[in-house]
Amino acid sequence: MRLTVQNLTIGYGARVVGSGISLVILPGEVLCLLGPNGAGKTTLFRTLLGLQPPLAGAIAIDGVPLEFLRPSDIAQRLAYVPQAHVTEFSYSVLDVVLMGRTARLRSFASPGSEDRRIALGKLKSLGIGDLAGEDYTQISGGQRQLVLIARALTQGTPFLVMDEPTASLDFGNQSMVLARIRELAAEGYGIVLSTHDPDHALLVATRVAIIAEGGLKVVGKAHDVVTAEALTALYRTEVQVEETPSGRRVCVPVWQRPDPAVRPPPGRRF
Amino acid sequence: MRAARRLTGDDMGAVTSGEIVFMRVRLPRVAADILVGAALSGAGAAYQTLFRNPLVSPDILGVATGAGFGAVLGILLTLSVLGIEAFDFLGGLATVLLVYLISSSLRGHDRTLVLVLSGVVIGALAGACISLVKIMADPYDQLPAITFWLLGSLAGVKFSDLAVTAPLVLLGFVPLVLHRWPIGVLSLGDDEARSLGVDVGRLRATVIAAATLMTASVVAISGVIGWIGLMMPHIARMLVGPNFNRLLPASMLLGAAFLLIVDTLARSLARVETPVGILTAVLGAPFFLWLLSRGRRTWG
Asked: Mean pLDDT, consecutive 10-residue segments, chain B of 300 residues?
């Protein structure tokens, strides 16, 4: 199983958002896309999922070009985890997760007991089995994100595409979702995700791709790509990458004015 | 057997006037109430799920008025029942397509507002076209027929009308039943539904055509009976939840029961028969305002 993106040009009509994008994603990998707002992460994702056609280049799953596949064929290979959102109607959590089975159903069928068993199993595996009967619109943002991940897992695909899975979550939920993502990669899922937080890339990514105006800038191992220079250029603010005593790397913005959390050295007044 | 022959009019033997009233007047009307109520509510449930919007319905979207214009035009041209049905369907379909195109081209606005307002605008346009037809109609023969029909009434329904309408309703109903599960998935939005494997463009076209056929075919016999398609799916959603597998049958059962009750009231409340469309509007308008006032982000 491999997802290949070859020399892709993405955009809408005459407007090119990015070009020359090439990627390969293998099972067990977490590829993290870093880039500022408006750099084209969403456009790349939509193209990757077959929601909009590429302007040039090709996307293939195991050598089969995406444009030869019907929506239900794509949905059996690539699952999409959108940002946690609220649905218009108050579906139960189980209903939302069961919708992941749509591409696996025979024509004109509805999910049956086997589908229900799979859906409940995925909810349990993410530690939210007891939410099955809850109203999806009434649970917390972190729980909703996990429900959407459970839905993607019931699709039974080798690849997962996640759009900012940690956005708008509190610190605890971010950490929980990131931990699940690591576990899923360990189980053999190939995962592509986007994030605004370079620390998250350092935490979960096996590889990181930097996407900026015009296309993909760098792809490589997280430690090689997430550097002070690259982040400073990307976000147009000075950033340092520091190592913690435990050996982890963290990204820290550098300010001209002293950090309020750090006590000023004695003898100087402000 | 005897009852069946009575229905078809073969057996004209000794019958009491009560029997005639029951067989020729009441029974077709009861059947029509059930058919029309179920069809409008089923179409309403489909539109609401498709447009991800609990405030739309055949009448709010202007479909009923558009279909009404088609039908009135059919009456003006003195077409057969089938011809009126055809005009009616085309009128309804043109309306819903126009509304959909307008609301989707006005991006960046409140989706609900744009959809409802587009429906109101196109519905008003269709209403103006109906007025134009009324002016052109023969004032002694066609105009009273058109006017009474537009008020929304099932008083004059005959079994021969139902024989044309029922199969058309069924033709719209079958695709909704077959696609019941993906229709629910469509309520998550286009991108998500497609990423879950739904062929969004094709399914949406199917649902619009099916729901519009159901609406238009009953409008041809009942006139424009408003509000049922808005209220019933909403109450059904409160009872069984938004899952379309349950929402569709629940809405249709409620719609059938509701119209049966309200039409019986319309017939017997006053000495002069009240067109049922007036009664449903009296009930529906406050219901709509109540929905608006709840102003929730999500709906039952």
From this structure: 57 70 87 97 96 85 90 88 87 90 79 82 92 90 83 86 93 97 94 95 92 92 90 94 97 97 90 87 88 62
* Amino acid at residue number B257: A
Question: Are A189 and A81 a contacting pair, CB within 8 Å?
Answer: no
CA separation for the pair B85, B72 (Å, rounded)? 10
Structure tokens at A101: 């089975």
The interface predicted TM-score of the complex, written ipTM, equals: 0.90
Measured CA distances, B241 to A87, A108, A139, B220 (Å): 13, 21, 17, 31
User: Which of A49, A99, A108 faces B188 most closely, judged by CB atoms?
Assistant: A99
> What does pTM read for this prediction?
0.89
Q: How far is B124 from chain A (nearest CA, A)?
A: 28
B31-292: CATH topology is: ABC transporter involved in vitamin B12 uptake, BtuC (1.10.3470)
Task: Identify which of B45, B43, B68, B42 has the alpha carbon closest to the alpha carbon of residue B224.
Answer: B68
Take residue B19 and report the two structure tokens written for it. 């029997």
Cβ atoms within 10 Å, residue A49: 22
- Secondary structure of residue B182 in the 3-state scheme: helix
**Does B297 reach chain A within 8 Å, measured CB to CB?**
yes
Q: Where are the domains of chain B?
A: 31-292
CA distance A110 to B243: 11
Asked if A88 and B180 come within 8 Å (Cβ–Cβ), the reply is no
Cβ neighbour number for residue A249 with a 10 Å cutoff = 16
Sequence spans of domains, chain A: 83-156
